Amino acid sequence: MAHVFSTYSITRTAAGTLTLFALAACSFGPNGEPPAMPAPAHYGAEAQPTQTVPAQGVTQQFVVGAKAVPEWWKQFQSDDLNALVDEGLRNSPTLAATDRSLAAAREQLRAQIGSSLLPSIDAGGQATRERALGIPEAGPNTFLYNVFVGQLQAHYTFDIFGAARLENAALAARVDVQAYQFDAARRALAANIVSAALASATLHAQIDATQRLVTLANEQARDTVRRYDLGAVSHSDALSAQQSAASLAASLPGLRQQWTTTRHALAVLLGRTPDAAPPDLDLARIHVPEQVPVSVPSDLLKSRPDIQAADATLKAAAADVGVATAQMFPSLSLTASMGQGGFSWPVALSGAGAIWSIGASLSQPIFHGGALLAQRRAAVDSYEAATAQYKQTVLAAFQNVADTLAALEHDAQALDAANFAARSARGIFDETSARYRLGAVPVTSTRSSEQQYRNAQLDEIRYTGARLSDTAALFQAMGNPVQDVKPAVEGVARN
User: Fold this and answer.
1) Where are the chain's structural domains?
2) Is 28-119+162-330+374-477 CATH 1.20.1600.10?
3) Lowest CB count within 10 Å: 135, 163, 260, 300, which one?
4) Per-residue CA distances from 87 to 84, 260, 434 (Å)
């Protein structure tokens, strides 16, 4: 009885020691929690206003604390724009490649978990005919015989200090990084499609207005040359008019090149060839969203995929520190096999042919030339680098939001002024045209007033496009709605 109690005590003590070692593995590295970041009262150098000035009859309101919008492009109320984004998300080869890479990473994680945390069992069979040298004094010097063996082999390494679990946690975190990067790529693709579609529509409208300006400038140049021939103006006046018309005409090819390049880029984003570029949207039928969500900084940390990816990278680096530490501690493995064997099939299949083996191995690193300590120091340095990168990612996200908020405010101010100028110039043009029809002013006055109107219209077109693009940029900057993100694979131990 004393012997049994002694064995029980030893077993309990050993189990308790292993448990303590396993719990100690959790402290082998940092916990991977992101560093505390400042929570600014507002994003920019100045507090953002609650709304912009009214421009083209629309006042945009900044709804502070509102949740990010998942399919934010639908806020522009354009079915054609929605169709373009949906097509791009379905057909983009880049997005499809990223999706497949993510699926492959998840399968690799499952494979690593299965191979590191569960025992491996293999079946094997062998049938050989061999020739061996004999002893000449004992008889013939050659032996011929058969060997038949069939067995199951098992191997298992105890994860006493958590090295395998930490490796799995590191890989799972890296899979999470890829998942967040896929989400970021999807949202970036939608943003690029919206940006390209708006840019193409804006450039198209600019080209139309510029073409009219070129026509007016050419008419003005021809009239000036005729007046020079009649001696009504100087030669320098005629040359100046021709120079102005030529300079204006020279700006058109550059605009057309930008427009063509943008349309080609949009076609590729949609998964099409450049020759199948979609028709331009009607800029006048795209509505500026009147309410724009502005997440508070604490929510932004959870909604931006780039920040979430930096957080997952930090967790992976923390797990790497634990792995590097655990590798300096002992490793215990068990192996076992059982089967049948013999020099003939009847013997191999009989009870006399039963074979088995079982064994254990314990390994403790003693001297590796400082490699293990250097690897741990490298893992710690990588963790500190990931911490700094996380901080920089957060600061860059704050700057991104601050810049787009300021841009929207300034876009509205500029567009309001440009709209007022265009309406005033249009009024002057209409009045001058009426006076010309009555014979009160020459045609040159009408042409001049129309040129002023077209130039003012060009400014309004540019600021309209900028306001739409910056609104899309702010929606994009807000990220996804805040939600709980599940681990890459359930059951993976996190450090």
Assistant:
1) 28-119+162-330+374-477
2) yes
3) 135
4) 5, 20, 49
